[in-house]
């Protein structure tokens, strides 16, 4: 019998239930995929908590990697036995197996494992669009990356260095500072004991940074704007500490005519061509060894609730996978 994590009410990790789940034959345009690894992401906690409302009951999870077991009518791009991964589509990655539209899948290159594929699709494609499209980082840019030892942050630090940027990273503990430096951060700020806007101004000789990549949300948003150079860009792409409060747009002029954007992954992979292009570039940089995917935590899929507790308590670093 196939099993999956589902929840019938929003709330803390305790609402996650390990349940038997029927799995019919794939419909037209779908494949049946046997998961070998499932990715854990902060957005999963937003869905579980109700911050991002869903119809209930619901599955959970947006990325996984595995093997195609069967294909529905009209599917000719994939066949049983193909190794694939995905980072979009209906929620439901927290499952031993599932049916999913074939249009959401990408082939895994031979040199990339199932665990790597599950760990990097959402986080890695996010890093790709943030660094290459939202604000295209250029050699010589000084950038600020919050949560530099986290899942997205650890990929972004390495990739930004590859692009020639000077990287300032923030972390919450000294242990994470060691990891951030090992990833390539030129400067690391432990925000629990340093005011990061003042430290950023000191590092940049008063100029500020070209861009701030902020997945933290409410607790860092205003201070992040204070780190920008004139006409710099604030990229707010997460809510780890809660949603950003309303603010007066005049603040942007006072900060130096700066820009603010709130991008979302699915607007950057809205077409199949975009998905394949972004995933292809990600696979290239990971396959080259220049950007490494650090899988620092593994949990049994049925123990997803504990994985959520550890993620929200900031006890995790790098990427985490759930194993069916």
Molecular structure report:
It is a single chain. With 324 residues, the chain is an alpha/beta fold. It folds into two domains: 3-121 and 272-323, Quinone Oxidoreductase, Chain A, domain 1, CATH 3.90.180.10; 139-262, Rossmann fold. The protein is built from ten helices and 15 strands. It has helices at residues 42-49, 114-134, 151-162, 174-183, 196-203, 221-225, 250-254, 265-268, 272-287, 304-312; strands at residues 3-6, 17-20, 30-39, 64-71, 83-86, 97-101, 105-107, 142-145, 166-171, 187-190, 209-214, 228-236, 259-261, 295-300, 319-323. The strands form three sheets. Strands 3, 4, 5, 6, 7, 14 and 15 form a seven-stranded mixed sheet that branches. The model has no long low-confidence stretch (mean pLDDT 96).
Largest sheet: 7 strands, mixed
- Number of H- or I-type helical stretches: 10
Radius of gyration: 20 Å
CATH architecture classification name of the largest domain: Alpha-Beta Complex
Global geometry: globular
- Give the tally of β-strands: 15
Organism: Thauera chlorobenzoica
Keywords: Oxidoreductase
GO molecular function: mRNA 3'-UTR AU-rich region binding; NADPH binding; quinone reductase (NADPH) activity; zinc ion binding
Pfam family, one: ADH_zinc_N
């Amino acid at each position: 019998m196939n099993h999956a994590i589902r929840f019938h009410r929003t709330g803390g990790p305790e609402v996650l239930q390990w349940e038997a789940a029927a799995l019919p034959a794939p419909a037209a345009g779908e494949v049946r995929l046997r998961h070998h690894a499932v990715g854990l992401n902060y957005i999963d906690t937003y869905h579980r908590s109700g911050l991002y409302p869903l119809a209930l009951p619901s599955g959970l999870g947006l990325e996984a990697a595995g093997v195609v077991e069967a294909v529905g009518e009209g599917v000719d791009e994939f066949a049983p036995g193909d190794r694939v991964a995905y980072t979009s589509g209906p929620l439901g990655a927290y499952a031993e197996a599932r049916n999913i539209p074939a249009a959401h899948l990408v082939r895994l290159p031979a040199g990339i494992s199932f665990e790597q594929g599950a760990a990097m699709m959402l986080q890695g494609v996010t890093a790709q669009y943030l660094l290459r499209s939202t604000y295209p980082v250029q050699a010589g840019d000084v950038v600020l990356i919050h949560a530099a030892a986290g899942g997205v942050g650890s990929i972004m630090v390495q990739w930004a260095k590859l692009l020639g940027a000077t990287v300032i990273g923030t972390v919450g503990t000294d242990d994470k500072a060691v990891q951030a430096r090992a990833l390539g951060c030129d400067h690391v700020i432990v925000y629990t004991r340093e005011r990061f806007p003042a430290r950023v101004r000191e590092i940049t000789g008063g100029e500020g940074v070209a861009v701030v990549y902020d997945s933290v949300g409410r607790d860092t948003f205003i201070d992040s704007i204070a780190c920008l150079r004139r006409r710099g860009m604030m990229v707010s792409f997460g809510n780890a500490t809660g949603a950003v409060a309303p603010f007066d747009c005049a603040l942007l002029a006072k900060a130096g005519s700066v820009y603010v954007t709130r991008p979302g992954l699915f607007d950057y992979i809205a077409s199949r061509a975009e998905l394949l292009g972004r995933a292809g570039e990600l696979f290239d940089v990971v396959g080259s060894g220049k950007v490494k995917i650090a899988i620092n935590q593994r949990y049994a899929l049925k123990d997803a609730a504990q994985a959520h507790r550890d993620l929200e308590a900031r006890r995790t670093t790098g990427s985490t996978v759930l194993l069916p």
